[in-house]
Amino acid sequence: MAAAMELRCWGGDWGLPSVHTESLIVLAYAKFSGAKVTVSPIDWTWKTLTATVPELLCGDVAVQQPSQILNFLRKQRFNADYELSARQGADTMAYIALLEEKLRPALMHTFWVDAENYVNLTRPWFASRSPFPLNFIVPGRLASTALSRILLTKGEAPLHRISEVEGKLYSDAKECLNLLSYRLGTASYFFGNSPTSLDAFVFGFLSPLYKAGLPSSPLQSHLQQLHNLTSFCDNILALYFNADRPCPPPPVQETMDANLQKLTQLVNKESNLIEKMDDNLRSSPQHKPHRVDPKPSLASEKSSTPA
């Protein structure tokens, strides 16, 4: 029997199962692949300071970082990408790299560096989810980490200060959103009729930006104008995270059910065709039995002959 899996992550709000991008990626992929994961929010615990989330616990194994957790789930035969071609797999890696390079820095700036958003939304939320005295420590530490990461990855010469980096961040992020919107088009998911790991990553990146009540965010306003991306997020929330309705079965089961349904339809169609052919044969005049009069016997022929 497989060991139970527990996922430690930040809790939910704003209509989302988690407000944390990395946690959302893992939660969505677990739903897509049919993995049964027990969610353990770290809110109001000392793990808000010490834990690295998301963290998946399975027996004696502890796995961190979304990419590592997804690989672990695939090894446990929970694979939402099993139908992807080699080309689609390469596209998945390319788009995930695009999200990390172009969109993540702008999201970190929006939630952790923008003063109005940080003071009115981000800091109060994380402070209220951390026990005393961590409520004075955790938000500031997360903000400092975000600022350092932005300057480390984007603060190249001649852009050294955050005010100089800001314009480039949002320009790249809007370009990334436009590319995602164009790639998705009118489809429900990025590849086929079932969500994959790319859908999990896009959902994790976009949903907090889409659902958070940010007092100031040009990037959120831009996203709200891309209706196919907002519908994409709403669709996943309704199908996979609505407590009032069961989640769709994993892709393997969907394929098996679809094949079984096609086979049943084919058998029924052939049975009906055979029955129709039998009816036609019975009703055909060429196949009606003929009544044959018996030949007169020799004695009767003699008796009927005149003497």
From TrEMBL:
Recorded coiled-coil stretches: none
Entry's localization field: Mitochondrion outer membrane
Pfam family, one: GST_C_6
Boundaries of every Mitochondrial outer membrane transport complex Sam37/metaxin N-terminal domain copy: 23-142
An example Gene Ontology biological process: protein transport
Region (Disordered): 275-307
Predominant localisation class: mitochondrion
Domain Metaxin glutathione S-transferase, residue spans: 173-236
GO cellular component, one term: SAM complex
CDD domains, alphabetized: GST_C_Metaxin1_3, GST_N_Metaxin1_like
Entry annotated with the keyword Transmembrane helix: no
Keywords: Membrane, Mitochondrion, Mitochondrion outer membrane, Protein transport, Transport
Family affiliation: Belongs to the metaxin family.
Family annotation (PANTHER family): METAXIN RELATED (PTHR12289), METAXIN-3 (PTHR12289:SF30)
Name of the protein described by the UniProt record: Metaxin
Highest classification ranks of the organism: Eukaryota, Metazoa, Chordata, Craniata, Vertebrata
